[in-house]
Sequence to fold (1495 residues):
Amino acid sequence: MYSEWRTLHLVLKNDQGHTSVLHSYPENVGRDVANAVVRPLGQALNAPSIAGTESILKTDKQVKWTMEVICYGLTLPLEGDTVKYCVDVYTDWIMALVSPKDSIPQPVVREPNKYIQIILKHLQNVFVPRQEQIGNQIRLCLQVLRSVQKLARDSTSMARETWEVLLLFLLQINDTLLAAPTVSGGIAESLADKLIGVLFEVWLLACTRCFPTPPYWKTAKEMVANWRHHSAVVEQWSKAICALTSRLLRFTYGPSFPPFKVLEEDASLIPAEMDNECVTQTWFRFLHMLSNPVDLSNPSIIGTTPKFQEQFLNVSGVPNQELNQYLCLKQLPQIFFRAMRGVSCLVDAFLGISRPRADSAPPTPVNRLSMPQSTATNTTPPHNRRHRTVTVNKTTMKTSSVNTTHSTKVQQQASSTSPLSSPNQTNSEPRPLPAPTRPKVNSILNLFGSWLFDAALVHCKLQNGVNRDSSMTAIATQATVELRRKGSQLSTDTMGSSTVFDANEFPDSYEAGRAEACGTLCRIFCSKKTGEEILSAYLSRFYMGLVQGLQIGEFICHPVLASIILNSPPLFCCDLKGINVVVPYFISALEIILPDRELSKFKSYVNPTELRRSSIHILLSLLPLPHHFGVVKSEVLLEGKFSNDETASDKPVTFLSLKLRLVNILIGALQTETDPNNTQMILGAMLNIVQDSAFLEATGNQVEMIENNLMKSHSRTNSGISTASGGSTEPTTPDSERPAQALLRDYALHTDTAAGLLMRSIHLVTQRLNSQWRPDMSISLAALELLSGLAKVKVGIDSSDRKRAVSSVCTYIVYQCSRPAPHHSRDLHSMIVAAFQCLCVWLTEHPDMLNEKDCLKEVLEIVELGISGSKSKNPEQQEVRFKGDKEHNPASMRVKDAAEATLTCIMQLLGAFPPPSGPASPCSLVNETTLITYSRLPTVSKYSFRYFVLDNSVILAMLEQPLGNEQSNPSPSITVLIRGMSGRHAWAMQLCHLPRAARANQRMFIPETRPEPKNDVGIKYNVKHRPFPEEVDKIPFVKADLSIPDLHEIVTEELELRHEKLKIGMAKQITYEAGLDHMKEEEFQKKSYPDPVTECKPPPPAQEFQTARLLLSHFGFLSLEALKEPVNSRLPPHLIALDSHIPGFFDDIGYLDLLPCRPFDTVFIFYMKAGQKTSQEILKNVESSSNVQPHFLEFLLSLGWPVDVGTHPGWTGHMSSSWSINCVGENEQQGHEEAVPSEDTGGSIFNGEKKVLYYADALTEIAFVVPSTVESQTADTSESNVSEQESDSNMDLLPGILKQPLTLELFPNHTESLNSTQRLSPTSRTRKTPHGRTVPPLGPETKVAVVWLEQYDDLENFPLLDLAAETSTGIETTTNSSTSIRNSTPEKEVPVIFIHPLYTGLFRVKVHGASGKFNMVIPLVDGMVVSRRALGFLVRQTVINICRRKRLESDSYNTPHVRRKQKITEIVNKYRNRQLEPEYYTSLFHEVGLKSCTP
Fold:
C-alpha cells in the first residue's frame, strides 16, 4: 500500500531537535545552569500566591534561551525538582494552542505552533529510560502524555506542521521505550498501555483534522511492527479498530444491520466530526497498522528486530539480559491470541452476529488464554476484554527448559479456574444467525483470509500423516506452507543455533491463537448464503485447515479441536462445495468427544456441555449422509487414513460404511450425556435415523447396503474406532478410545438394520427412562415422545421388545405416582399424563399386545392406579382390595382423566380403528337427522326419539319405528344413538328368538301343519259285529230261561196293530237316519283337512312393539331401584328420561356432537421464495406448480391425504366446516357430477375452501392447510364437493409431481426467478359459522406454521404477524371470550418449522417460536438435517408433539372425554324429566311424540 513512499526513519535519525547548547559544556555546568534557571519558573507555576502572575519571559530571545536550558534540564537525573519543574513549564506552555494563560510567555502565545514544535522535540528527553527513580519518571511521562492528549483533543488552531511533529514525537517516544525487549518491572512495561493509547487516539484525531500523509502511515506501520511484543499494542489496536469498525458498519450497511456495540469510552476514540470517507480510509490503514498479526506466532520475526539484535549483541555485561529476552518472547502466544481475538471480533461484526447479553463472554469458544502466565479469569464483554490490561503473573513462568512440554500442559490445566462459554451456545438462548445483509464470504476472506488461513496452520506440518515434529521451527513451518512474510527471516540453520530462543520452548503454546483463527474461519464459512459462490482456493485452504485441526493422534490439539467443533454446527447445512471430504475427520473428532463422559482434556478451554451440544449438532447433520449417498465414494483422500484397517487405507470410502460409526457415536452420546437439552437433541436424532432406516428398507435398498458394506464396516470397527489413532503407531489416549470401543463391542452386531436400531433404541431409552431421566421433566417428555415415535415405525421386532416398551412406561407411571406428596406438582402430573398418552400410542399401534395375559394385566393395573390412586393388589399386601372397598385418591384429576382416556382407548378403539367409514371420525356418521332422512316414513320426526340417560354419563336416543327398508320384518327392532364420553355411536338392535339359520329361511313365525289323512291305505274287512259271542247260542235253555214268554205268545190284536205301526215307524226312522248319515258322510268327504273351526291354532305374532321399554327392561334398567335417587348422593338415578320438548334440547344435543372425540391440530403451510418479505408474495406462490419446487408438492402429499371440506366428517382446519355429517346425502348428486379440477396448482387447492390435506390416527387428527390469495379460488360461489374416490387420485390433483426422477440433486431444472406480476393483497379467510351452530370452547388453540424456505436467510423476514389472519381456525373467538386473534394466541407463541432444501437433496430444519419449559420438542430440533423419505413423517410427528406439549402446559385444557362428560351432565340437569315412578312407568306405555309431530 505504501511501497512507492519513503519512510521517515532518516528524518528522525538526523533530527537533533532534542539536544541543547548546554550539552556542549561539562555536565556540572549544564546542571547548575538548569537548576538555577528553571527553579523560579517552576515555583511561579506551583506557588498559589503567584500562580496568576505574568511570565517573566517577554521576548523571543529570552524564551529561546530559556528553552535551551529546559531542554538540557529534561535530560538530568531525577534527583531534586529540576526535571519536574521543566516538565511543569513545558506542559503549561503547550496549552497555548488550547487556552492561553498569563503564565505563558507572550512570544509563545503569539506563535504557538512554532514554539510547541520545539517543545515536543525537547520533551522526548523525558522518555529516555533512566536506571533510578523509575516511579518519578513514570509520573512525569504520564503528565506529558496527558498534556499532549489534551492538546490534540482541544486545540482548534494547530497547524499541519505541528500535527506532523506531534505524530513523530509520539512515534519516537514509543519507539524509544517499546522497541527494546521488555525488562521486568521497567518503565516500558508500566507505560506501554498509556503510550500506545495516546498515540492511537492522537493519530485518529489527526486523521480527522489533518490526515497524515503516506510516509507517516508507512513509518507508523514499520515502527508498530517493532513493538508487538507488548500486549498493550495489540490491546489498543483492537480497541481502536473495533471503534472504527462500529462507525464503518453504521453507514456502510445502514441502520438495519446489527450494531457492533463498543463501550462509550472506546467509541469516543473516534471523533464525532470524522466523516464517512475519512472513517473508511482510516479504518483500512489502521487495520494494517499491526502488519501481519500471524507474525506474532513467529519468534524469529519478533525477536530479530533491530533493537533486539542490538541488545543481544551487547549483553556481555548484563547477566540477566538473556533471561529477560526469553521471558519477553514467552508472552508472544498470549499476544498472538489477543490479536486473533481482535480479528475474530471484527469478523463477527461484519457477519452481524449479535451478542445476546452485554455481559456475555466473547463469541469465540476458546476464550481462555492458553498460557500458564494468565491467571485472570475474564468475564467482561467481548468489546471490553480486549481493552483491559492483562495481569501477568511472572512467578508462574518456568525458566528451565527441562520437560517444558509436560509442565506447560499441566500448567494450562491448573491455571484455568472456571471454563467460559460462548453466549451463542447457552442453554436458554439459541445460536444467533448472521445478519441477512452481511457481506459475502469472499469479501470477508479478501480482508482477513490471508491472516486467518495462516494462523489456522501455525506450527502445522503439511505432509502425509499427522505426526508432528516437535523440533520443527516456525520458519520451517513457513517454508512448508509457502507463506509470505515481511521483515527479517532467519534460515532454519541460523535459527536452530541462535541462543535468543529455542523452538522447543514453544511446543503447543500458540494453539490458543490458532484455535481462535480456526473458529473464526468456521463462522465465516457457516455464514454462507444460499446459492452464494465461494472461491475454490478459499474452500481448499479452509478444508486443509480443518483436516489439520481435526487430526486425532498423539499430538492432538484440544483447543483447536474444540474451537472447530464449537463453531461448526451448521457447517454441513450450508451447501459448501466439497464439504463431504472432511466428514471422516469430523466423525473421528466426534468419537473423541461424545462418548467421553468427563472431557477432562477440554475442560480447561471450554464448557464441556457446550462442546457436546455443538458436537451433537454436527452429528445431526451427518446422520442422513450414509443413507442418502449410499455407495457413493469419496474419491478425494486427504491426509491421514479413514480407518485403521491397513488393507483398506488407500481405497475410496463409501458413505454407507460410515453409518455404523455414526450410530455408535449416537448411542455412546446418549449413554454419557447428562445435560437435558443435549439429551433431547440426541433423542430426536435417534427417531430420525430409525425412521429413515425403516423407510429405506421398505423401498428395498437395504439389500445393497447389507451385502456390499456390512462386512466392511465390521472389519473396520472390530479393531477399534476408525481414525482413533490417526495413523499414529502409538496407542490412543484411554479416555478417548475406551468408551467408544466398548460401545462398538456392545452394539456393532445390532445396529445394522432398522429392526436392530429400533431394538437398541427401545432398550436404551426404556432403561434410562426408569433410572437417570425419571426426575427431569424435559428429558422424560422427550423420551416418551421418542417411544411414541418408535411405536409408529413399521418394522417387525420381537414382541418381547414391544412389551418392554409398554412395561417401562407402566413402571415409570408407578414410580411417579408413588413419589412423596411434597414432590407432587403440576409438572410431575404432566409427566404422568404424557406417559399415559405414550401408552395409548403403543396400544393403538400394536393392539395384539393385549392378547397376552400378563401385558393386559399390567396395563389395566396402571389404569386402575391412575383412576383410583392405588392398585387392588400390591406386592406388599397379600389380600386383594376390591373396587368397592377402596377409597379413591388419584394423584390428580388430570392423571385420573388421562387414565380414563387410556381405558376408553383400550375398550373402544383397540381393534376397531379405523372404522368402515374411514379414519376421519371414530364416531358413527349418523344422527337424528340422518335417521329421519332414511326412515322414509312421514310420521317420523325428531320428536319420535325417546331420550334416556344411563348412570349420568350416556345419553340414549331411541327410535322405535322401524326404518323404511325393514317394515316387512316383524321382529322387535330399535335404533339407538349412544352419546357417551367417547363419542356418538349408532346401534340398530333387533330382538331375536330364533337361531340365525331359522331367521335366514323365514321372516315370521308359522306353526307346523297337520299331515293329510290317507284313507286308501290298508285292507277293508266287512265284519258283522255281534253283541254276544257265538258260544252263547250253544248253551241249552233252562226253565228259568223260559219263564219270560216271547212277544208273539202274549201279543193281542190291539198290540199287533201297535206293533206294526211302531215297526213301520222304525223302518222309516232307520231309512231317514241312514240317508242322513250318508249325506253327512258326503259332506265330510267334501270338507278340507283339518277343520279350521275345530283346529287348535297358536296366537299370531305381535306386530307393534314398544321396543324402548322392552330394551330397558331386558337390560334391567326398569327396576324400582334403578329409578330411585341414591341415598346420600347428589347423583341422579341410574336411569332417567329426558324431555326433548323443552326448548333448546336439540341445540344442546348438537353442541354435544360438535365436541370432538380426539385432539385436533392445524398446520398452516407457506412457501417462501428467495428474497420475499410480504405476505402477498408468499400467498401468491402456491397458485401454480411453476412457482414452487417439485419437492414441495411431494412433501405436501407426504403429510396427509386430500379430503373435501364439504363432505369431510373430521377436522378441516376451521370450525365452520368441521365435523359435518349430514351433507353427504344432500350433495351426493352434485359430487358425482363435478369433475376433478384440472387447473395447475402449487398447493393452493388445499387452502381450506374446497379441500385440505388431512391425517388422522386413533388418537389425533391434523388438518394441513395451504393458505392462498383470493384469486386462486374459482368465481363459483357454490361449494364444490369432490367424491372420495376422485379426491384420492393424487396424480390428478397435482400433475406430474411424482414423475420427477429420484436424484441426489434437489433442483435439477429449477429456476428461482421471481414472478414480476403485480401481487394483490390477500384476503383473510373470513368464514362464518353456519347459522344456529354454536362453537364450543375447545381449550388452547393448537396450530403450527410450516414454512418452506428457498433461501435459508429469509427466515428472519418471514411475516408471521401479517399472516395471522390466514391462520384463523375459528377457535379464537371461544378461547378467552374474545374475538381478537392476537389476544388468544400471541403470534410469537405460534411455533414455526422452517424447512430449507439443500442442493444435496437433504433438508435443513429450523424450529422457532416454542418457548417455556416445554420448549424443545422432538424429533425435529434446530439444525437437524433430514432425508426426503423421512421429512413428512418427522414433520407430522413434531407437530403432534408440539401440540401435545401445548395442551400439557395449558391450565384451561380438558381432555375430549372430560368435556363431553361435563356437557352430558349439563344436559341431564337442564332437561331431566322429573316424574314419579308411576308416571314414569305410564309414559313408557304411551306413544312417543304425541305433543308435536313436526320436525
